[in-house]
Every structure is written in structure tokens, then in C-alpha cells.
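Example A, followed by Example B.
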Amino acid sequence: MTNTPAHSPAAVPGDRAPIPRLAGERESMEAFLEWHRRTFELKCEGLGQEELSSRTVAPSTLSLHGLARHLAGCERWWFRQQFAGEDVPILYYSDEDPDQDMDSLDGDAQEALAVWRSECARSREIVAAAESLDQRGTSLRTGEPFTLRWMLLSLIAEYARHNGHADLLREAIDGKVGH
């Protein structure tokens, strides 16, 4: 018999698809990435502009708004620009202001989440069109090739790291916890 911890009344269990335990490599990686995307969305759910933009974990300047901008930029950079080779502008970045995704919260937080959702949708299309996990993209910085497999694992790690940040931010905003 196993003990399953009950969620506290303040927990945010959410409605995520379970990650299959008996699946192939590609299905597993896609499921883990989707689980992390949905987790981030749940961390932002039900919050307004002020809450999403608040920097609640001092001395960090992180906010859910900034994380939404950052993750939208990651989705576009990796899937569209480097893997699919699409000629689209970089989001929330310039050489003069490389940290604007996290630092410049002058836009609407709900719009930033909509951009992030749109980038996730395009990333899903790109992955669905890829013939195999061995399909390659090319780093725009170094010219080095990478596989879809490597990129998916990198994005899972990126989301896992930032979902930890989002956990702390959300708890500081309204006490909601959970994964």
C-alpha cells in the first residue's frame, strides 16, 4: 500500500494529461514537455496584470510575466528559428537589451501569455512535422547541428527549471502551491 499525499486546500492540482509510463521515446518526450507547458500555464491561471508582473521573491527580479516572455522567446528561438529555419524576429531580445524578456514588463501580461501559447502551438506543429528525433537543426550562434531529441530534452530542462521559479512566485502571490 502506498501513501498518496492529499493536496492542501491551497494546492493547485490542475488538469494535465498524465504522462504515459509505457511509451516510446518520442511520445514520452513530447508528453513531458506538454506537462511542463501546462504546469506553467496553471501557475499563471487566474492572476491579473499586477500579480503576474509582481516580483515576489526577493532579491530575484523574476516574475510570471517575465517568465512567460522568456519561455515564448525560447519556444520561438529553438523550434522556429534554429530547428525549422524560419525567418522570424527574436522575441523580447536585442543586443542593446538582452534581458528585456525578464526586465521590461511594460506590456500586457495576458498578451505575453497569448504570445507564449501561440509559440507553443507553432512548436507543436514543427515537432509533428518532423520525421524523426534524429532530424537536425542548426545553432544560429555556433553553426553546430543538434537533433530534435536533444532540443526536446533541452526544453524539458528549461521548463522544469522555470516551473520551480513559478512555484515560488505563485506561492508568494497567493499561497497556492502544487505541481
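Example B, a separate protein, is given below in the same form.
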Amino acid sequence: MTLLELLHLLRERLALVVALPVVFGLIAAIVCWGFMPNQYTAEVSIYALAHLESSSQSGDYVTSSDLSASQMLANDFAELAKNEQVQSQTADVLGLENLNDYEIQITSSTTTRVIKVAVTSEDPDSAALVANELVAQLSDAAIRVMEVEAVNVVSDAKAPTSPSGPNRPMYAMVAVLAGLFLAIALVVLEDMLNTTVRSDQEVQELLGLPVIGRYPLEKGGRR
């Protein structure tokens, strides 16, 4: 099937090609804006000073080895944040059963030694409380089990005033594209399953004989 043939088929079934994306988009919009709650992310910025940094650091500049150490520390902090004991202690201090309802993410920049701890929740105040307490527990664990001299908090987490997610427009757009792809697939499948002869060219291909004339049908189906 050529592109022109596909465009011709889509034009013939234009109603389906338009209706499915619209329906999918409307369903996604209803679900996203009607049933998906807002998510709020609170962030804490910390600076972890390792033993290697204190002995080799000269001046106030940042070396490539410092940045590599920062990334490794971020990975270590991410593993510690998943530790059952650290999460349990954080939940106990805050009077929570567990931290299953909170999404925890730890990242470090490629140009600084600052590590960011982000906690996402449906409640902005809870997200900030969990982020601050989690950093406190992570600091104790890092000093105890890692070669870290101190973990300094650059900025405490504040309750966010605007949601960080979900990305509703993106979900709606994905649904519209999914509806469009489904409509195209249905049109192509219907054409493939249609075995009727619809053109002179198909007659010649099937029978191997030239078409020497046509006999049109009159209006109403009478010959």
C-alpha cells in the first residue's frame, strides 16, 4: 500500500479517524483532571563532606574528582534512602506506619557537589516533613556507615505551593495519538480484509485479461 492509497483510505473513513482520537482524548482528560490527584514535591539540598575531600581539596574550586565523588555519594544516599531501617526510623519519628505513599528521589548535579533529596506526595506539608526527617536519618546513617565527615543541609524543604504533577496535558496528548494510531490500524485492517474487486487494475491482476469495457449500474441498482 502506497502513501497515497493510505491517505485515500483515511479520507474515506475520515469520521472514524477523527472520532477515535477525540474520544480517547476526552476519556484521558476526564481521568486526568477528574480522578488523578495533584502531586507535590519537596526538596532538600545537602552537602556531604567526605574524608577524601577534606584531605585533598585545595582552594575553593571544584575538581573533576570532587564531582565524581559527589555522584558516587548521591548513589550511596539513594541506596540508603531505600534501606528499610532508615525508612522505618523516619516513619516512626513522624508517626507514620511506613513511607510507601511517598516517592523518594536523590540526585546530584554534574557541576556541583550539592545533593538533592526530593520527596513527592499528594499532601505538600507531609512531603516537606518527610523530606526533612529523611535527610536527618540519612545524615546519621551516612556518617555511621560511610566515609563521610558531615552532612550539611544547604536548604530545608518547604511545603510546595504548586503541584509538580501529574503531567496531564502530556497524558491527554498521548491518548489522542493512541486513538489516531488505532484508527489508522483499523482502516488498514478493514482494507486488507476486504476481498471485493474495486478497480479495473485489480481485475487485470486477478484474471490476467485486459478490461475492454464497462457496464455501469443505473441509479437504484438496476442495470
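On Example B: Residues 54-58 have pLDDT under 50 and may be disordered.
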